[in-house]
Amino acid sequence: MSVRELVVLGTASQVPTRHRNHNGYLLRWDGEGILFDPGEGTQRQMLRAGVAAHDLNRICVTHFHGDHSLGLAGVIQRVNLDRVPHPVTAHYPRSGQRFFDRLRYATAYRETVGITEAPVDADGPLARTGGYTLEARRLSHPVESYGYRLVEPDGRRMLPERLAAHGVRGPDVGRIQREGSLGGVSLEDVSEVRRGQRFAFVMDTRLCDGVYALAEGCDMLVIESTFLDEDERLAVEHGHLTAGQAARAARESGVRHLVLTHFSQRYTDPDEFERQARAAGYEGELTVAHDLLRVPLPKRR
Predict the structure, then answer these.
(1) Which of 129, 170, 206, 264 is at 20 to 30 A from 200, Cα to Cα?
(2) Does 227 score more than 80 pLDDT?
(3) % of the chain surpassing 90 pLDDT
(4) What pLDDT digit, counting tens, does each position of 192-212 carry?
(5) What SS3 state is found at 115?
């Protein structure tokens, strides 16, 4: 059975708190696992969340600030310790290659798994599989940073009333799906386009074109909201978003489920992030993330 869900491993920004670990997010996408921004303590959070090294197929790092990448050393070593039997690919800004190298080889260990390095240096597709295309877009932060987006190919949804009207039934339904036509009836005659799902991951950034390109039409957007709106000056100065800014971007981009995360330690009331997001006009499904939360992707449209 295919599973598509976000497993939240950590939600703190620069400084962890008693209740929030540094960043870490695992996207389960059918049979694959994509780990985003493993901050310090990610390996332990994986254990607490029931996530194993064998669940990882890709690691995507947005940028090389410590709260988004210091967990790489432990995660990579665990992948090797557990002898993960399938390929694991790492994406990260090419400008941070020296940081990736230091983290990958931070200490001595036995290297048993070949991590494929696939650094990012431009907007566009990074990988294509049968289940999705992975894309990157440049963001606006004091160090080079990229957001990531998964796009599932569009499919087709069979329509029972049209199948019946054209007399297509039983094994012939599978045949027309495979072959595209049957006895003068085309696949388009008995089906409609089923839009593929879209997921985006946007971390440390000011509002910029990249935010909107990543968020456009997403079924789920995971996005930083480090500051509340009253601290917008600090957000702009340090290259971050407020709750209201993140929500407005989601609203304007047609996002179905907004997940806010990456919260500054200065705030103690997580409900205020939801209040400000709603005040910004976002009316879709909204989650203020907390550690070890599991968030299913919305059902297809």
Answers:
(1) 264
(2) yes
(3) 87
(4) 888 999 999 999 999 999 999
(5) strand
CA dihedral sign, ordered 275, 234, 8, 200: positive
Give the residue carrying structure tokens 């074109």: 209
Report pTM: 0.92
For the annotated catalytic residues, the residue numbers are 67
Strand blocks (E) in 104-212: 115-117, 124-128, 133-138, 146-151, 155-158, 181-182, 185-186, 191-194, 198-202
How many CA atoms lie less than 13 Å away from 292 in the CB half-sphere? 11
Per-residue b or e along 191-209, where b marks 16 or more CB atoms closer than 10 Å to that residue's CB: beeeebbbbbbbbbbbbbe
C-alpha closest to that of 252 among 293, 294, 209:
209
Dist. CA 14–CA 6, nearest whole Å = 22
Q: What is residue 120's three-state secondary structure? A: strand
Q: How far from chain centre, in Å, is Cα 57? A: 13
